[in-house]
Amino acid sequence: MWTLKTGDQGSSPWLHSVNGHVGRQWWEFDPRLGSPEEVAEIERLRQEFHNNRFQNKHSSDLLMRLQVK
């Protein structure tokens, strides 16, 4: 589902760092990971968040709550 990427320049020539990207980390979504049921649940929650993004506060983000479990 989610993979943690750390300290990597990747293929971007514009991304550079004086300390070799130490401390740089981000999460990347990979739909190939996880069971089909988990992926379907993630997609449902993403769509629900998209539909209600102007009415609900960020603390009601069910996708975030699913990941924190």
TrEMBL record:
One of its GO terms (biological process) is triterpenoid biosynthetic process. Belongs to the terpene cyclase/mutase family. InterPro entries: Squalene_cyclase (IPR018333), Terpenoid_cyclase/PrenylTrfase (IPR008930). This is Cycloartenol synthase. It comes from Sesamum angolense. One of its GO terms (cellular component) is lipid droplet. One of its GO terms (molecular function) is oxidosqualene cyclase activity. PANTHER family: LANOSTEROL SYNTHASE (PTHR11764:SF20), TERPENE CYCLASE/MUTASE FAMILY MEMBER (PTHR11764).
